[in-house]
Write a structure and sequence with these properties.
Elements lengths: L4 E3 L17 E5 L7 E7 L13 H9 L3 E6 L9 H15 L1 H4 L1 E11 L1 H12 L20 E5 L11 H8 L5 H6 L13 E6 L8 H13 L3 E6 L22 H4 L1 H13 L1
Length: 273
């Protein structure tokens, strides 16, 4: 396995002013051999205020064990604001495709897997990848930033009544105009250009209500975009793998919820077959 840490904006413009010394980076888990493989780009959550280690390497390890190249993007968070996180994931997808031949990576089989606010970022690239304001940015190639699949784990989606308000405050500012909130309420931005999606949530999530996943799934249905949705009855927010590996203070272990990983791998293999 090739494990690297790459500065995704090396040699390209990136404004460090809001967060001096921080550079978005990509951790790689590239499997050995000449076999061409699909890939999963992992976006940890953290309310756009930090990025959770519990939703980084442990997730990548699971997808690598299932035979996918895996990557974790440590993207910009507050005080950086929109559109920088979206620029980061756009650039990361372009990096994967730029190295596709070297890494034996199939450029048409790249999934983006996001957790909580990372799920919002993953869904954002799924609905906004073709927007003109993402073009003309050095290092971002049109359609090079297009994901082929979305994996959304207890995602932040809506800026409406079911919003996780802190995520939107960090991403857009506390005084964000209505137009910005509308644009980043992602259930309103789904179209035929949005890739197929796998979503999971818990009914009992008290931080990011399950309605976020339901609204996105409903929008996908209306747009004719295939999806798979699982709602588990129990479990709080931020369960990650729901195993001892990603538990905190003895909490967050739920074998039933943990079955999402196998369900997702099966879905992804079928999609990329």
């Amino acid at each position: 396995m090739k494990c690297l840490k790459l500065d995704i904006w090396s040699g390209l413009p990136y404004d460090e002013t809001p967060h001096p010394g921080f550079r978005p980076c990509l951790d790689t888990y590239i499997l050995d051999g000449a076999k061409s493989r699909g890939a999963v780009l992992v976006l940890p959550g953290g309310g756009y205020g930090f990025t959770s280690e519990r939703e980084g390497e442990p997730i990548a390890a699971q997808f690598a064990a299932a035979g996918f190249h895996a990557f974790v993007l440590w993207y910009s968070v507050a005080p950086h604001c929109h559109p920088q996180p979206l620029l980061d994931v756009s650039r990361a997808l372009c990096v994967l495709r730029e190295h596709a031949e070297e890494w034996h990576l199939d450029p048409e089989k790249i999934a983006v897997a996001g957790f909580s606010a990372g799920g919002h970022l993953a869904a954002s690239i799924g609905v906004h990848w073709e927007k003109p304001w993402l073009s003309g940015i050095p290092g971002i190639r049109f359609e090079g930033n297009r994901p082929n699949a979305l994996i959304l784990s207890y995602p932040v989606i809506s800026s409406g009544v079911h919003a996780h308000r802190g995520s939107f405050d960090n991403l857009l500012g506390k005084e964000a105009p209505d137009a910005a909130l509308e644009m980043m309420s992602l259930e309103k931005q789904v179209g035929s250009h949005t890739p197929p999606a796998f979503l999971w949530h818990t009914f009992a999530d008290g931080l990011v209500p399950v309605e976020n996943s339901l609204l996105f799934a409903s929008a996908l249905r209306k747009a004719g975009v295939p999806f798979e949705l699982h709602v588990f009855p129990d479990g709080g927010h931020g369960l990650s793998l729901a195993t001892a590996e990603t538990a905190w203070e003895g909490q967050g272990i739920d074998p039933h919820v943990g079955s999402w990983v196998n369900l997702c791998v099966e879905w992804l293999r079928n999609l990329f077959a």
